[in-house]
Amino acid sequence: MDERKLSQYIDDLNAGKRPKEHKNGLQKEVDEQALFETVRKVRLLREVEYPDDLFRQRLINSLEAKEKPVRNRRKRFAFIGAASAAAILLLVTAYYFLPNKASNMVYAMENAMKVVRAYHGIIEVSETNELGETITQSKREVWADKSGNYYIKDLDGVSRESITANNGTQKWQLRPEERTIYLLPAFPDDYRFTFEIGNEINDAAKAQTVEVIGQETIHGRKATKLQIIPDGGSPYFLWVDNETDLPLQKVSAMQNAIQIKAEYTSFELINEIPHDLLAYYVPDGYKEEDTNMEQAAASLEEAKELAGFMPKLPGQVAEGYALNRIAVEKDHETVKLYYSARDLAGSILLTQSKTAGELVPSPMAVLGTVNQNKAEIINSETNRSIRWQEDGMEYGVLGTASLETLTVFAEELSGGNVVIPVSTENPGQPQVKVDVDLSAEENEQKSVDAGHSPWKLDPAFVSQVFASLLLSPEGITGDYPIAYEDIEITENNGIDAIAEIKDEKSIAKYVYLKRLVRQDDTGIWTAVGYDTDKR
């Protein structure tokens, strides 16, 4: 056996192929067999490699190939001495421990983000048209930390000198043109600034393909340029700092004759956001506008006096979390319990109020159960929540922590299990199937990614349009013949959903929907069938 044969064996394993030595079932020399076994074991020490975008086609080709006769070719094997085997083994080990930046780039970014405590930088966002003309949309100075706190100052544009900040307890927005500072609810906080590093890494991790294009210098920093193709979306480029393994610049595909670039013109890792930036105060000459309807409570007993009921505490909380604030939203008689963990990212908010009617889940939610009670479960990129009713009370668990962490709080609060439907569960077959043009749906997904037709993300709205078009196939003018209020999502596991049409004149009694292009909260819904009969 020579080195070329061993090299081919390695290449086959590295490409995810089955080496022919395994296929032929030939007897091998003892040393040769042991060496091949060692190579396989060394390879197992590498990071897991996932199928690339050509996996599906390779699988199809391999199945087709099985239908054709294959001739096994026997080759003679030469004896390899123990000394030669040891020398080649050293080469094999070195080969497999060499860094593979192309396959490990996302992994490196995720690991880098885990140790980030806070960062500070200046973000510029600009747009370029197809004529090459560029204008700056915004320029901001940003401080952000792993706990979700931030301080953002607009440096240019119509909002120049405006400040938006959140210290976990208070959120405010200072507007110099109005000489006003607005107090806002600190949590949940849907505000996210453009090119937030953690979000960019999450998007890259979910992408269909990530490919290293080359090396470039961005604002004096050496960076690796990646081409990223999201599942069902348009490709874009991301530049990753070679020193910190964190994103520095992003350029979108040209969409609607516009290309967007977001970049950190300066960037540094810091231990924490300066305390004075997160300290709330009203500057001289400014008035305070409090839009936050919460009132702080010093104890559960005080919360009871304000809300009219004794709030319930979970039996235990997720590891590392502790109750740090109690508040009451008096207008809705809702008690809010804020939990945080010093060394963990993501706050948790528990809400409790008396029921004011049947639970009406959001059409965007997955439908599950908490302690055998119907539950609304939302698992989006920025916020997650579990909401249910039980014993005359409505409970909610909200946060930026993982859904698993929220589940711990919900189960401890209810005393029962949280059941979330899995995406592999089949909702059944429709009586009438709808032919779908997948290429058209892929283009729709790209359009939605660019900010158009956001209603395609709402399964109830998609059902409304579909059911209305069945009644008016020539087109719709004015109001839809089927009202949005007459649509109820009865099943939703995040990929498949069923909508009940509660309108007697509707042809479709139930509409079956599916996320065909992308199976996450950014994926559009498509009607794939319907039932004409009531269940």
Measured by DSSP, the beta-strand proportion falls in 25-35%
SS class:
alpha+beta
Q: What is the number of strand segments?
A: 26
Give the uncertain stretches in residue-range form.
23-30, 39-84, 90-100
Task: Report the radius of gyration as a whole number of Å.
Answer: 28 Å
* Terminal CA distance: 69 Å
Major sheet details: 12 strands, mixed
Q: Give the helix proportion (percent range).
A: 10-25%
Describe the global form.
globular
Mean pLDDT: 82
> Order of strands across the widest beta sheet?
7-8-9-10-11-1-2-3-4-5-6-12
Q: Number of helical segments?
A: 11
Features:
535 residues, twelve-stranded mixed β-sheet, globular, alpha+beta, 11 helices, 24% helix, nine-stranded antiparallel β-sheet
Describe this structure in words.
The protein is α+β, with helices and mostly antiparallel strands. It is 24% helix and 32% strand. It has helices at residues 3-14, 20-24, 30-43, 55-65, 82-97, 101-114, 197-206, 300-307, 403-414, 438-449, 459-471, and strands at residues 118-129, 134-145, 150-154, 163-166, 171-175, 180-184, 209-218, 221-229, 236-241, 247-251, 258-270, 287-290, 294-297, 322-329, 334-340, 348-354, 366-370, 373-379, 384-390, 393-399, 418-419, 432-433, 487-492, 496-501, 510-514, 526-531. The strands form 3 sheets. A 12-stranded mixed beta sheet has the order 7-8-9-10-11-1-2-3-4-5-6-12, with helices on one face. A 9-stranded antiparallel beta sheet has the order 13-14-15-16-20-19-18-17-21. A 5-stranded antiparallel beta sheet has the order 22-26-25-24-23. A hairpin with a 4-residue loop joins β1 and β2. The protein starts with a helix and ends with a strand.
